[in-house]
Amino acid sequence: MPTPLAPRPAAPPDRVAFHRTELGPILGLYGRMVAAGEWRDYGISCLRDVAVFSIFRRTAENPLYRIEKRPALRLRQGQYAVFGMEGQVLKRGNDLAAVLRVLERKLIRAVE
């Protein structure tokens, strides 16, 4: 009589990716900025330890902003971060909506 196999522990994912619930707010903000004429292109990279949403003014340039998801930092600094063009951290945290607010401020302009 064969012995029953023990259930395997869940294997860690081989790549980090944005979930549909995370892409909704990101693409909503992206659409508003495209409509305002600020942004023109984006790229998504899914790597082993980080997922990156890069925002470009023009396709051939370096990204204006990078929205990163690093689950390994979830219990430390927060798994979401927004980086500027020079690599500076603009906002970091576990709440994606709060982290994206730093970019929404760019959409608000004073009307003369």
For this entry, give a set of tags.
about 110 residues; elongated; alpha+beta
The N- to C-terminal Cα distance equals 84 Å
Largest sheet: 5 strands, antiparallel
User: Taking strands numbered 1, 2, ... along the chain, how are they ordered across the largest sheet?
Assistant: 1-2-3-4-5
Give the overall form: elongated
Number of structural domains? 1
Give the structural class: alpha+beta
Low-pLDDT windows of residues: none
The Rg value, from CA coordinates, equals 18 Å
Helix content: 10-25%
Strand content: 15-25%
Could you give the count of β-strands? 5
- Give the mean pLDDT: 82
Tell me what you see in this structure.
By secondary structure, the chain is an alpha+beta fold. The protein has one domain. The protein is built from 2 helices and 5 strands; from the N terminus they run αβββββα. The chain has helices at residues 20-35, 96-104, and strands at 41-46, 51-56, 65-69, 80-83, 89-93. The chain has a 5-stranded antiparallel sheet, with helices on one face. Helix 1 runs parallel beside helix 2. It is elongated and about 65 Å long. Pfam families: DUF2794. This is DUF2794 domain-containing protein. InterPro entries: DUF2794.
Quick overview:
The protein has helices at residues 20-35, 96-104, and strands at residues 41-46, 51-56, 65-69, 80-83, 89-93. The chain is of the alpha+beta class.
Write the layout of secondary structure elements.
Layout: H1 20-35, E1 41-46, E2 51-56, E3 65-69, E4 80-83, E5 89-93, H2 96-104
